[in-house]
Amino acid sequence: MEQQFSFNDELQGKIALVTGGTKGAGKAIADRLSQAGATVIITARNQPEEANKRLYFISADLSTAEGTQKVVSEVLNRFSKLDILVNNLGGSETPGGGFKALTDQDWINTFQANLLAPVRLDRGFAPGMIERGTGVIIHIASIQGKLPLYDATLPYAAAKAGLINYSKSLSNEISPKGVRVLTVSPGWIMTTAANRMMERIAESSNTSVEQAAQSVMDALGGIPIGRPAKPEEVAELVGFLVSPRAGYLTGTEYVIDGGTIPTI
């Protein structure tokens, strides 16, 4: 029997935006914040597979400057403010095979989605948070920022390392003005996107999907807890960090990886 939580409407009256909020961890985070009483906006290029009247959807390609500006404008025009920004959008669509298999465009596309999208959204929403003296910005990074998988996701790992560094720097600048900035770095999360990545690795290396998954596990050094994370487990951490219960937390990276990273 799963444990039940009471969120007590702790985010009542808050406006939250979750990027990449239609699938995987993003969907779980959006649902978690909505359960806590927030009005939740989600963005993605494509419509959610399942309609949810509690979530306000904006279709946008956040890998472009035009897409991020569309989201900033629509949120502020419709809701007048934003209290919580969860920069969850991210992923890797580059081929396996190491550095020689990667083109300039592979690097550019990966950095646009994983680093520049959150930078642009922060630039759009943080000034309003600073003006009101309150707000929370979450950057969803990855343990690959410290534990890169060179054969499969080198640009993604580099982009997430940049995001972690940027997040800390942003926190130092705007936390004194009332806006908390935090980084969440998950390990392997069992999502549809993760399954697709295994298929790409298998195709490029001429192996099975199971062998590709095992190669990722081996490259990570194993997961001591014995399994990938569930999207809901990442969402629960984010739900706590954006809540008033975490009011003294800022400028910190929270790793949720089942013990994958082998150092302290």
Automatic annotation (TrEMBL):
The record ties this protein, via SUPFAM superfamilies, to: NAD(P)-binding Rossmann-fold domains
Q: Which PANTHER family match?
A: 3-OXOACYL-(ACYL-CARRIER-PROTEIN) REDUCTASE, NADPH-DEPENDENT REDUCTASE BACG
Annotated family: Belongs to the short-chain dehydrogenases/reductases (SDR) family.
The molecule here is called: NAD(P)-dependent dehydrogenase (Short-subunit alcohol dehydrogenase family)
Gene Ontology terms describing biological process: monocarboxylic acid metabolic process
Species for this entry: Chitinophaga ginsengisoli
| Pfam families tied to this protein | adh_short_C2
